[in-house]
Structure formats: C-alpha cells, structure tokens
Amino acid sequence: MSPHRSWAALLVALLGVLAGCSADEPEGEQPTATIRFASYDFSENEILAAVYAEAVRRAGLPVSLQSGVGTREVVQPALEQGVVDVVIDYLGTALQFADRGAGAGPGTPADLHAALREALRGRGVVVLDAAEAEDQNGFAVSTAFAARHGVTTLSDLVPLARGLTFGGPPECRQRPLCLPGLQAVYGLDFADVRNMPSRSATVEALLTGHVHVGLLETTDPRLSQASVVLLVDDRGLQPRENVVPLVGAAVLDRWGAPLADALNAASARLTTADLIRLNRAVESEGLTPEQAAARWWDAA
C-alpha cells in the first residue's frame, strides 16, 4: 500500500473513532457541539493536548480529547478537513509539513509563526499565539559513548557514522528534520537504522549499546535521569520549535473569543521548564496526561 493510501485509510479510521465518540451526544447535536482536541502519537503531545484542553474546559467550553491519534500525516489532514478542531503543534515542524518539505529555515519564532500562518491560509486552519515552551528534535548518545569517542556535537559523528546504529521512531526515516536532514546537513549515513517503539526504549537501547545514536526530544526528562547526553546541533539542522495551537477556522468562528483567549492564555503561561516538569510527571511519576495538566493548572 502506498503511503498516500495508508494515510487515507488511517484518516477514515479516525473519522470512525470520532463518530463513535460523539454517539452519546443528545439527539440533534452535531459533533462540533464539542471542541475536539486530537494529539499526535507520542507522550509529550498527548500532555500538551491535555494542558490546552483543560484551559478550554476551565473557560466553561465543552471539550473532547482524543489522545495518540496518529502521526502528523494523519492528524494534520484531519484538522484541515474539519475532522478534529484543535491540534497542538511545534512551529518549525508544522511549517515544514505545511510547506510540503520546503524547509522551515533558521528564522526567529516570530518569523516562523508568520510563515506558518501564511502557509495555512486558505486551508481552514488558524494559528494562535505560540508559547515560550519549545521542544526540538535532539540526538543523544550514552555518556560512556561520548567519553570513549570524545564526541559533543553532531559533526563529531561524521567519521564514525558508517560503523554506528541509529534508533528512532519509524517515521524518522522520511522526516526532513530527522534522518534525511542528518544526511543532508551533516553527511551522516549510519550503518544500520532500528525502529524504536518509544523514547524509553530508545534510552534503554542507548545504555545497552544496541543503538549508538538515538532520537530524543530536548525536553525529555530522561536526559537528567539516565546516563545519556544530547549532541549539539552545531550546523543548525533544527528550526525553532515553540509550542503553538492550530485551530479549525469553523470551530473558532463558532466559539469565538472565549476559545481563542483560553488557548492563548495557556501559551502565555507555558515555559520550557514547565514542559519538562509535565513530561516528568507522566513519564516518572505515573500521572496521566489529564492528571498532570490539571495539577499544572491548579498550581497557577
């Protein structure tokens, strides 16, 4: 099955899931009577969706939350087609996808925000305020590997790469800010690439030596808990990745300023340090994303 057809099939499945979630609504109500949040299929984005959904809920608006729906290739078309209403994204990666790989560039958050608004203009999606909180792709090695080979930057991997194994999520093979970017910007061509089912599995594989380099986000709480270290992106592959809410224009028209104000208030408060603490609450303390989000808002 081609990637296009597989994404289309997943979108159809998503439509069925969301239709099922709205089955209990009163007769005569449409699914848009609830503001439908959807998250990507990794933990931090599930947390962010819960944080922003809680802001809207506390503003007195009706919310439903679908966690871990799928990759960007599934969720973004769902947002543009009105299948979901709110997605919490990251500036540079969102722009890269919206521009169909044209490249986010090294601009400031304000530059990227303006470019993203322009890229989504006419697609029925509104870009609200970006947060100070930021999470970029990071590439980690074990501290033992770093010490043994004297590496601190991604450029230091160049003479080693052909003897190394890389570990990351399956989509890393196609994403321009992951393996294709590492090859294009740094000339890194690894001997082997292994799919990792989770970030915790990536850390374990780094520590046991099953992989030598692995994808870990820069806000991953395991970076302060395990013997792994991020390598410096010394050639600037990664763009700025401030957290940003993307909202369907139709739902924003319906709910107006109360919805926009609640989402913008969440962005105004959220810092990178907050995001690390929220990740730690879920990954290390065992809270659900919803519990972590509620505790964060209660501490406001």
From TrEMBL:
Cellular compartments per GO CC: ATP-binding cassette (ABC) transporter complex
Keywords: Signal
Domain ABC-type glycine betaine transport system substrate-binding: 33-298
InterPro entries for the chain: ABC_Gly_betaine_transp_sub-bd (IPR007210)
Signal peptide: 1-23
Top-level taxon of origin: Bacteria
Protein's UniProt name: Glycine/betaine ABC transporter substrate-binding protein
Organism: Modestobacter versicolor
UniProt lineage: Bacteria, Bacillati, Actinomycetota, Actinomycetes, Geodermatophilales
